[in-house]
Design brief:
It is built from seven helices and 13 strands. The protein starts with a strand and ends with a strand. By secondary structure, the protein is an alpha/beta fold. The longest helix is centred in the last third of the chain and has 13 residues, at about 160-170. The chain has a single domain (about 1-10, about 45-215), classed as Putative cyclase (Glucose Oxidase, domain 1, 3-Layer(bba) Sandwich).
């Protein structure tokens, strides 16, 4: 079996959602000082490649550890939305053109916008990303998808009001969200659907968790 890594790395000072505290990874103990090496991390639970549970936006919603692990593995379709303009809308028309017709129920949809290639602490990455249109969130819910992913820190982009709205729409329909994927052009060229897996860290009662998203390929 071949494993294709879709994750983004976490490192000291790395890029993240501007509303969150900066990422810190400090060597707390080194071989030179204590004969052991380990680091102390300071970061939000929604940093790097991570999953959003309903609790992230829905009061009283399920936390990440209440969702079955089986739900985070399954068949996924990669929607190649490149090239899309900075701050552009991800509309239902774009998704319909990039996904199979009909889109099977219970599918996982991964949106490749190209912003995962940029991934840097710059204005274009922080505040220039595409944004999922509310009509698209509604359309995806009507297709009864299981999960939705994007290669940026926010599914709704830099637009705070839109980001809050589409998160609410998706999570209230039981659709989990995976953000900060690494979906290169080569990934978009893979035969679809792909076998996707993104298992969350077991954070008790948390609104989300880091994960290692991958594609599993069975070699002939």
């Amino acid at each position: 079996m071949k494993i294709v890594d879709l994750s983004q790395p976490i490192f000291d000072g790395g890029p993240n959602c501007p509303a969150h505290p900066g990422v810190k990874s400090e060597v707390t103990s080194s071989h030179e000082t204590a004969n052991w090496c380990w680091e102390t991390l300071t970061l939000a639970s929604h940093t790097g490649s991570h999953l959003d549970a309903p609790l992230h936006k829905i009061p009283g919603g399920k936390p990440i550890d209440a969702l079955p692990l089986e739900s985070f593995t399954g068949l996924a379709y990669i929607a190649n939305l490149r090239p899309i303009q900075p701050r552009g809308w991800i509309t239902p028309e774009l998704l319909i053109a990039a996904l199979p017709d009909p889109l099977p129920a219970d599918s996982i949809v991964l949106m490749s916008t190209g912003w995962g290639d940029i991934r840097e602490r710059s204005d274009i990455w922080l505040y220039g990303s595409p944004r999922l249109h509310p009509d698209s969130a509604l359309w995806l819910a009507e297709q009864q998808i299981r999960g939705l992913g994007i290669d940026h820190w926010g599914i709704g982009g830099w637009d705070k009001e839109n980001d809050a709205l589409v998160h609410t729409m998706l999570l209230s329909h039981g659709i989990w969200i995976v953000e900060e994927l690494n979906l290169s052009v080569n990934i978009c060229d893979l035969p679809q659907p792909v076998n996707f897996m993104a298992l969350p860290i077991n954070l008790k009662g948390h609104s989300g968790a880091w994960c290692r998203p991958v594609i599993l390929q069975h070699e002939s």
